[in-house]
Amino acid sequence: MSSVEALAQVISNGVKDIQAQCTARGFSYPTPDVVCSPETDAIQNEFSSQAAPIIAAAYQLIATLSHPQPYLLGMGLWGYFPASLAYIDATFVPDILREAGDKGLHVNDIAAATKVHPGRLGRILRLLATRHVFEEVAPDVFRNTRLSSGMCLGKSVKEILENPLGRWDGSSGVAAIVSLNGHENMKTAASLTETLLDPVTGFSEEPTEAAFQRGHRTRLPCYEWLEEPENIITLSKFPNAMRGTTHYNSDKVVNEGFEWAKLPEGSLVVDVAGGIGNLTMVLASTHKHLRYVVQDRPAVIKAAHEHWAQKMPGYVEKGIVRLEPHDMFDPQYIRDASIFLLRYTTHNWSNKYATKFLTRLREAAQPETKLIIIDGISDYLCRDTSSIDNIPGAAKAAAPEPLLAYPDSTIGWGYLMDMNMLGMMNCQERTVGEFMTLLKASGWKIERICRFEAPLPQQIICTLL
């Protein structure tokens, strides 16, 4: 069987299997004309693992059948897709069309709400419609598809127009992350080649010498840049955008995997750089026999006190949870921790800086202390796992050829996020091998990895070296 036939068979058999399961249970898999809803989202979430090899095969079939010249020329212009999506968010199109209903709306009427050029808006909508984000139902008349409805803010157009800066608040966050990627992050991406070819910045591990600084013409690290008065729109967008990257089942990665219930009564869990303590909230509500400390910068901890008083009153007051200001690069003052916990922290720092705060934790650890890193892992795209086979959970089952080894990774945004982290702060997503090197340099070793289905992050369980 040729690779083309094999890929087509993966698609055909996979689709038949999903359809058969849906039919047996009395529902249909959502099609592009079915807008997002909790019910239809739940169906897609349930079948995400089964859909992954089908989607990966479709991507690979397109690459196989395409002539290199038009394929690469098109790829070189893909940047206009995120830019177009950012414009769509800025002109509130998904919510305008949500109110218009199934018949859709003429571009003149869509453009009238925000007083933009209707012809140019129509061209952008038509581009996105080629990828099934919007549908042109009549000349210059567009309506939402399932994909475009994912950007809806859940507010009336009147509400959005009255408070455009707060339009992302209370939403899923998808529109905010789409806007961030299509606007601020595009400036960073456009400066990546120049930054990497520079003999100084191309090798720098400093968060102030990344493509972000060149693209935004600043010397400030991105988080400080966010707090400048002229960047209030981005600052409003950013926390909502982070919510947009949160998986619907993200609590699973906190509660499952590591055997929290087996920790002795009163064991201390330290959530390092834990923000306002959302991770600890999940743990504390389930594992009440443990004690917890959330550490972060003073301003964040101040906000955390208000957050806990509102969401989980009594936990702080009774001493079950302590909220304490601490710079993770300073010596760690807690010396009796059973668990040091880091979620989405290592990918924010280059090896130079990650080694520093991991070493601080190693210095404060007791012989039985464990370090749990909850973060993404970049899969190698080859099938050779010999370098990591000795670590339980490190190697994943590979998909059959001709598919790339790990379809769930190839169709996700992990590798794109790695490029984004490089551009933003000279930091990175890491492979298992890169985690091994980083941890060894700071006195830790990987004991095992608790795996979760993509796009969930993974649990890396570490012990003292």
Properties at a glance:
single chain, 465 residues, alpha/beta, Arc Repressor Mutant, subunit A, seven-stranded mixed beta sheet, three-stranded antiparallel beta sheet, 23 helices, 11% strand
- Indicate the CATH topology of the largest domain: Rossmann fold
CATH architecture of the largest domain: 3-Layer(aba) Sandwich
Q: Largest beta sheet, briefly?
A: 7 strands, mixed
The radius of gyration over CA amounts to 24 Å
Task: Please name the fourth-level CATH homologous superfamily of the largest domain.
Answer: Vaccinia Virus protein VP39
Number of strands: 10
Distance between the termini: 49 Å
Measured as a percent range, the helix fraction is: 40-55%
Low-confidence sequence ranges: none
How is the largest sheet built, in terms of strand order? 6-5-4-7-8-10-9
Mean pLDDT metric: 95
How many individual domains? 4
The DSSP helix count reads 23
Work out the strand percent.
Answer: 5-15%
CATH top level of the largest domain? Alpha Beta
What structural class do you assign from the helix and strand content? alpha/beta
What is the approximate shape? globular
Descriptive report:
The protein has helices at 3-24, 38-46, 48-65, 68-76, 80-90, 93-100, 107-112, 118-129, 146-149, 157-162, 174-182, 184-190, 192-197, 211-216, 222-226, 232-244, 252-255, 278-286, 298-311, 351-364, 407-410, 414-425, 432-441, and strands spanning 105-106, 135-138, 141-143, 268-271, 291-296, 321-325, 339-343, 370-375, 444-450, 458-464. It has four domains: 3-75, no CATH class; 78-160, Arc Repressor Mutant, subunit A; 178-244, no CATH class; 252-464, Vaccinia Virus protein VP39 (Rossmann fold, 3-Layer(aba) Sandwich). It has a seven-stranded mixed β-sheet with strand order 6-5-4-7-8-10-9, sandwiched between helices. A three-stranded antiparallel β-sheet has the order 1-3-2. Helix 18 (278-286) links the parallel strand 4 and strand 5 (291-296). The model has no long low-confidence stretch (mean pLDDT 95). The relative contact order is 0.09. The termini are far apart. The protein has 465 residues and is of the alpha/beta class. 47% of the residues lie in helices and 11% in strands.
